[in-house]
Write a structure and sequence with these properties.
The chain is built from four helices and six strands; from the N terminus they run H-E-E-H-H-E-H-E-E-E. It is of the alpha+beta class. It has a domain at 86-183. A four-stranded antiparallel β-sheet has the order 3-4-5-6. Strands 1-2 form a two-stranded antiparallel ribbon. Strand 4 and strand 5 form a beta hairpin. The longest helix is centred in the first third of the chain and has 22 residues, at 5-26. It is rod-shaped. The model has no long low-confidence stretch (mean pLDDT 77).
């Protein structure tokens, strides 16, 4: 069966009209060579979303604040000073005793003794900006200055020393007792 020329022509017109209608519905502009995406300005942060794999979505929030690590540490020297008077030393000792809990963990057979307490008090003083030294005194001098007594067989003891004006004061770091040591002038 042969179709007439009129039927073939009508079929072609319908086919062309269908193709145009389909192109129009699909949003294609015939006669334009390039496609220009719609541009819009969005104020504020936006979220972009893209498909990475099937069932995996990656969200990227924009704008992102950039923090850079320069790798350098700025060191500021501490302002160290001696105590102005005995009352300031006593107040500092009271605050240090209230706000400090020192727990020593030593290996089996290790011993925590006077030098550990004296070094801890010296470190605390330096952290607070005060000059306090580490001292070793003999048994007789210790027993004459402090209310406590060193046990027999302990010939030396570690304590701290603070200078106030022209006077030096010993500090028993384990009890907080302060004793006048000597006048420097």
């Amino acid at each position: 069966m042969q179709l007439s020329d009129g039927v073939v022509f009508a079929f072609r017109v319908l086919l062309a009209a269908g193709a145009l209608a389909l192109a129009f519905c699909a949003g294609v502009n015939i006669g334009r060579v390039e496609f220009e995406p719609e541009m819009r300005t969005v104020i504020g942060p936006t979220v972009e979303c893209r498909l990475v794999e099937s069932h995996t979505v990656q969200y990227v929030e924009r704008p992102v604040a950039v923090v850079r690590d320069t790798g350098s540490i700025r060191s500021e020297p501490a302002e160290l000073r001696h105590f102005e008077n005995l009352e300031e030393l006593r107040q500092w000792m009271a605050v240090a005793a209230e706000s400090t809990a020192t727990v020593y963990f030593q290996p089996p057979g290790g011993e925590v003794d006077c030098d550990d307490y004296a070094l801890a008090l010296q470190s605390r003083a330096l952290a607070d900006g005060f000059i306090v030294s580490f001292e070793i005194i003999g048994r007789d001098e210790y027993n004459s200055l402090f209310s406590g007594r060193l046990p027999p067989g302990q010939d030396f003891h570690a304590i701290n020393l603070a200078i106030i004006g022209n006077d030096a004061f010993y500090i028993e770091s384990q009890t907080g007792e302060i004793a006048f040591a000597l006048c420097l002038d």
